[in-house]
């Protein structure tokens, strides 16, 4: 049985048994915040539990490394929609220690692409078009600096209200312990 069929079979039972009822909520986050976190599998259940959030409490965006790299990319668009359309009043950026993005070797990723039948000519064409794929795929060297950078991309965005606190925290993927890196309230008080 394929993974997809396994998922569909499970889902059919989930719906038939009414197990979805306990997860019902509306689209507006009860705690009025949006969280940008890493897509690491260790955080799927650990992150919400360590923050005391349940279904319906927050909006959670998952990216590799919890990185917000482009002020006009899809992650930033999602943050703006969460604020303006879904009533989020705070933003939390929460990367983690021992992140795979800290060890990403862009050259190795490109080689794996080629090994999986992406023509080298496609990579070359992207480069000729001004897309530095290796820079785009690059991870980070310091999780603290990466967290601060993502906070700055969000906070410095021209469409983010100055009244929105943007916090930066780092989570342990082993224990769920949070470490404060940027206190968005303190940044507001300094103004």
From TrEMBL:
GO MF, one example: carbonate dehydratase activity
Lineage: Bacteria, Bacillati, Bacillota, Bacilli, Bacillales
Keyword set, alphabetical order: Metal-binding, Zinc
Designated name of the protein: carbonic anhydrase
Cofactor descriptive note: Binds 1 zinc ion per subunit.
Gene3D superfamilies referenced in this protein's UniProt entry, alphabetically: Carbonic anhydrase (3.40.1050.10)
Entry superkingdom: Bacteria
Entries under SUPFAM superfamilies matching the protein: beta-carbonic anhydrase, cab
Protein family (similarity comment): Belongs to the beta-class carbonic anhydrase family.
Residues bound to Zn(2+): 38, 40, 96, 99
Cofactor annotation: Zn(2+)
Enzyme superclass (EC): lyase
InterPro entries per UniProt: Carbonic_anhydrase, Carbonic_anhydrase_sf
Source species: Peribacillus muralis
CDD domains in alphabetical order: beta_CA_cladeD (cd03379)
Enzyme Commission number(s): 4.2.1.1
Catalytic reactions of this protein: hydrogencarbonate + H(+) = CO2 + H2O
């Amino acid at each position: 049985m394929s993974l997809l069929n396994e998922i569909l079979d499970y889902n059919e039972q989930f719906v038939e048994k009414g197990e979805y009822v306990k997860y019902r909520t509306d689209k507006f986050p009860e705690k009025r915040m949006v969280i940008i976190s890493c897509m690491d599998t260790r955080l799927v259940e650990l992150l919400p539990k360590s923050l005391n959030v349940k279904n319906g409490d927050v909006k959670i965006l998952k990216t590799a490394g919890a990185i917000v790299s482009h002020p006009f990319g899809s992650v930033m668009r999602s943050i703006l929609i969460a604020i303006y359309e879904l009533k989020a009043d705070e933003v939390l950026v929460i990367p983690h220690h021992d992140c795979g993005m800290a060890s990403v070797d862009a050259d190795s990723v490109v080689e794996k692409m080629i090994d999986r039948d992406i023509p080298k000519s496609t990579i070359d064409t992207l480069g000729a078009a001004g897309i530095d794929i290796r820079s785009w795929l690059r991870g980070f060297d310091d999780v603290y600096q990466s967290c601060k950078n993502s906070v700055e991309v969000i906070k410095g965005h021209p469409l983010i209200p100055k009244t929105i606190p943007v916090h930066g925290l780092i989570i342990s993927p082993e224990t769920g312990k949070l470490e404060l890196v940027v206190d968005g309230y303190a940044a507001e008080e300094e103004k």
